[in-house]
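Budget justification, computational time. The allocation requested in the original proposal was used primarily to generate structure tokens for proteins on the priority list. As evidence of use, we reproduce two of the resulting records. The first is shown immediately below.
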Amino acid sequence: MRQMKWMALAISVSCLSLAGCSSNTGSSTNNTTHASNPTAMADLKNHVQAMQQTASQLTSVVNAKDTANASELAAKLYNQEWPSFENSVKSNYPLDYANVEKYLSPLFSAAKANPVAWSQVDTLNQGLQQALDQLLSDVEHKTPATTSANSTALAAAAQQYHDYVLQQSELLVTHTQAFVQAVEAGDMAKAESLYGPARVYYERIEPIAEDFGDLDPKIDARANDVPANQWGGFHELEQAIWVKHSLAGQATVAKQLLANVQTLQRKIESLTVQPGDVIAGAVDLLNEAATSKITGEEERYSHIDLLDLVANVDGSEKAFDAIQPIVQATDPSLAETVAQRFKTVENTMNKYKSGNGYVLYNKLTAQDTRTISEELNSAAEALSKTAKILS
């Protein structure tokens, strides 16, 4: 769950007439070539430049150590400006999308920390500005990734990834149903044992789920991500199990969780995945693991964050598997590098296996989390380079 961006999506009144932007917040099904649409290109440039201006203001605020304005400007970037056009960037400029996402989410978290992590905010904001500069350059000088000599292979890769996501969503429904039944029966031990397995299937397809407006926060919001009277889903039940040690009154929450998961599965059935969504989703999952899961914030009550993290990596690797033949044919060295870095992450995570899962997050050392994060970032960096081949 990428915190509060859904709120901006829900209230935005300026849906761009660009690829991937429609009344449906799902993935793009009608890529529009900006190079042949001057109005669309101008709109996109305006949005990028607005973010550049806000990021520049944030630099001044960081230098002044102005806590209130740092949090406000980071929230403006993350919750207002980027959500208004990110789907268009995701579909047409997947590499740029991944680069912006890599800096924006941790920047938002660092700016709202108490105390503010000023050095981290400064470094991330500089990275964000560089990513925005590159995005603007690509919009001005390049045709988005909508055409390719490998168009048939790309379509096949997109379909392969869609089939995987659909399969995982079906398994998500099955495992969530079993979890919900345990909650409804008041069986604490069974609910605790079934919580983690259900989470795995959601975390493998998280970027796709996040495309459906407020459906993601209904399923995956953490406490304080949404107003208290709107909180529900997996994490309210997690809190009931590991903190309150009581399932009393949770049957309604559980039933709504299952209904939302079933809705997600139906939406994925009819979703058209674009080639750009595959690589953007793959990099997004690694960024999510490296910047969110590794902090221990996601599963703050059960501490099963490593289970989520590995599921993120699994989903990312499946996306790469879909495009791997195309990358192999074009740049065998890059294909080998990406595969090797996934293997490195896998080998590292195997060290933390414990029973049917992984050691709890609160048992990790600072060096453990640093090593895992560095390896995830290394894999994401290599994976992001495949976007140039796919365009």
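The second record produced under the same allocation is shown here.
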Amino acid sequence: MIVQEPKTLIAAASIRRVAGALGRRVAPLAVALPLALGLAMTPPAAAQEDPDRVVARAGDIEITAADIAVAMADPALQLRDTDPEERLEIVITYLVDLRLGAQAAMEAGMGEDEEFARRFAYLREKMLLEDYMQREIDVAVTEEAARDLFETTTAGIEPEDEVRARHILVEEEDEAAAVLARLEAGEEFADIAREVSQDPGSARNGGDLGFFTAGRMVAPFSAAAFELEPGEVSDPVETQFGWHVIKVEERRATQLPQFEDMREQIENFLTRQAQQAFILGLREGVEIERLDVDEDEEEGEN
């Protein structure tokens, strides 16, 4: 049984509170958008100083710096763990293969039927939408907007008390009493926790649960822990998990996260907000009429 998730940084609880506040602001924005809002491929800002510079040649196929820049933005070609020079070689080879394959397909008469034209039109429209939406996102997701959102989100959040505590979990009250007797005899709390505690998540750390606020624990445990001062040990405390002996090591007020702690979450929020505003703006005044459903069937469903 694990009472509380382990925490690592001082601001962890506060980050969750700020993230929760952002989450509540995101919730009203949850509109089902039938789009890949991750923006499958974002064109690079600039290919290189000379986008038309030929970087590689294979027969009559020329690969330019601009070709490489576009391919490098393809999520399928990110190859993040690959050495940059090796990745460049892979991308160039892929582009050559792509051109060779496209030429062979055209010589075989592919690309001339209606099905291909429909697929080509779909992909073109999808790229246009994604590029246009990315332009709007770039306008909305700015340093100033991110910092303003951080300030307004954290303005109403007050620091909370939190404690760092250890505990020993056993099944029966008499076992908890035996633990207290060993402590009174001078044994170390952490040593006893490693030996007898039935909470494997904390036992290996001498019962250490890290810092937590009152709301992170079940009520009886929390009430007992927050009545203690650093160095004090509780009487046996019963919860649905068994019997606990608790020792508080430290008390302090939570620290609100810094802007950089929250930057990624804030920018993700602003991105989703901009995506929704963009799509809803496009949809304004547009009604979708289903023509593949019979009127009788619609009446029956109603």
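A brief technical remark on that second record: Confidence is low (pLDDT under 50) at residues 1-12, 26-48.
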